[in-house]
Design goal:
single chain, Arc Repressor Mutant, subunit A, three-stranded antiparallel β-sheet, 7 helices, 3 strands, 11% strand
């Protein structure tokens, strides 16, 4: 962070929050930022949201919720090409939301519901409003 920006922020901090030492308060806030940046739970949630932040991937997750499906079925559901579907499937596999396997000459995919549930629970715990 540039020095002039840092000083400007320090100058306003004690105006929005009751504090006596803006330098110390700024350092505390910087530490919180560092901890959050490397928080594994938040990083997992980010990857989860990133995976679901695409309509095709969300459609794939929904299609796999009730039944395992082969890539050709997903092509028909999404009306997209096999390379496009494969790209989205790789992204979902990276996050651990789906698993694929060969069955003859076809590749089938299934939703890993337990991982999906774990991420939902984690999201609820992170942002609990109780």
């Amino acid at each position: 962070m540039k020095v002039d920006r840092k000083e400007k922020i320090k100058g306003t901090l004690c105006g929005c929050e009751d504090c006596s030492d803006s330098n110390k308060y700024f350092e505390n806030l910087q530490q919180i930022g560092k901890e959050l940046k490397f928080d594994q739970n938040l990083n997992s949630l980010f990857a989860f949201f990133n995976a679901l932040g695409n309509k095709e991937r969300l459609t794939i997750i929904t299609a796999l919720n009730n039944k395992e499906r082969c890539v050709c079925e997903l092509e028909a559901i999404l009306d997209k090409s096999q390379p496009s579907i494969s790209h989205h499937l790789r992204e979902l596999e990276k996050v651990g939301l789906i698993r694929g396997w060969k069955k003859g000459k076809y590749t089938y995919y299934t939703l890993i519901k337990e991982e999906f549930k774990n991420l939902i629970v984690s999201l609820n715990q992170e942002f609990s409003f109780e």
